[in-house]
Design a protein that fits this description.
This protein has 70 residues and is mainly alpha-helical. It has a domain of 39 residues. It contains 2 helices and no strands. The chain is elongated and about 50 Å long.
Length: 70
């Protein structure tokens, strides 16, 4: 049985940045290959996927703003 490993918020955020960078690079590489091989629809899908990854990371790591904090 695996023991639980808890990370502080800064450690977790740094891990998310590292892992998402790996994913984003792989998507960009795949997009470039698809473009070079003339698979334009696949390249567009990879571009959208890359944008989605970036948006999710930014949304996750952005500080939470309370609705009643004015």
């Amino acid at each position: 049985m695996r023991s639980a490993h808890y990370q502080s918020a800064p450690e977790r955020t740094a891990q998310i940045f590292r892992e998402s960078t790996v994913v984003a690079k792989a998507i960009a590489r795949h997009q470039q290959e698809a473009t070079l091989q003339g698979r334009s629809e696949e390249a567009r899908e990879m571009e959208a996927l890359g944008c989605g990854v970036c948006s999710m990371v930014l949304a996750f790591t952005r500080p939470v703003q309370l609705a009643n904090a004015a």
